[in-house]
Write a structure and sequence with these properties.
By secondary structure, the protein is mostly helical. 68% of the residues lie in helices and 0% in strands.
Length: 222
């Protein structure tokens, strides 16, 4: 019996591509609006204007301000992973991986101020919806603790010791204080807070990490 492949419906493909482009346009507009007005502001009309779509089109994708913010936060978190994690994965030592991630995230924010503004306006919720906080950072914490490099009592405390400084680093970006030296010192301080000895933490934080490369279609671009 011959298996027959179902023919591709090109109209369905075109419609799906159009829908994805519209969704991306809404998300890109929303991150800029939230970056200016914050998560608590009523931004739907502003996003509609920013994205250049009709009100009906908007409501085909999102129903509420809160739903929109949650989806933008999820996309921001996951896009940070897409950009930064390939660089992090080149490091074999868990402490070097974490240092690389911290330095790279600061570099990313410096090159994309809208990201820093979105996080500062949105607070912890601006980063907590996607895989960055649920998968990637916990992975690095587990690896560091398993290797005996991180000696904090539990993983949740380690998580807090990482994300508190990261959120403040976004504020430093907005205020023009986030130099390369700042990013390196941040990485060193976080590693020390996790239990890494001072001289080793300094060495990890000053490794030669690859530069951050931003895709042309990044959510963070205008």
């Amino acid at each position: 019996m011959t298996n027959r492949t179902k023919p591709i419906d090109h109209r369905t493909l075109v419609a799906a591509e159009r829908r994805e482009k519209t969704r991306a346009k809404l998300l890109r507009g929303a991150i800029h609006v939230f970056a200016q007005h914050g998560a608590e502001a009523s931004v739907i009309e502003l996003v509609i204007k920013q994205a250049g779509v009709s009100r009906g089109t908007f409501y085909n994708y999102f129903r509420t301000n809160e739903e929109l913010f949650l989806e933008v936060a999820r996309e921001v978190s996951n896009e940070i992973i897409t950009i930064v994690d390939p660089i992090v994965q080149r490091q074999r030592d868990p402490a070097a991986s974490l240092a690389c991630g911290l330095v790279s995230v600061v570099r990313l924010a410096v090159n994309n101020p809208v990201l820093a503004q979105f996080v500062c306006k949105g607070g912890p919720g601006a980063l907590s919806a996607g895989n960055l906080t649920t998968t990637v950072v916990p992975r690095e914490i587990k690896n560091g603790m398993a290797a005996g490099l991180f000696t904090v009592p539990d993983e949740q405390l380690a998580f807090d010791l990482i994300f508190g400084p990261v959120i403040m680093a976004f504020n430093a970006v907005i205020n023009g204080r986030a130099s390369e030296e700042y990013a390196r010192n941040l990485a060193q301080a976080v590693l020390q807070s996790l239990g890494v000895e001072v001289s080793r933490a300094r060495c990890y934080a000053r490794l030669d990490f690859d530069d951050v490369s931003i895709p042309a279609d990044s959510l963070f671009h205008c």
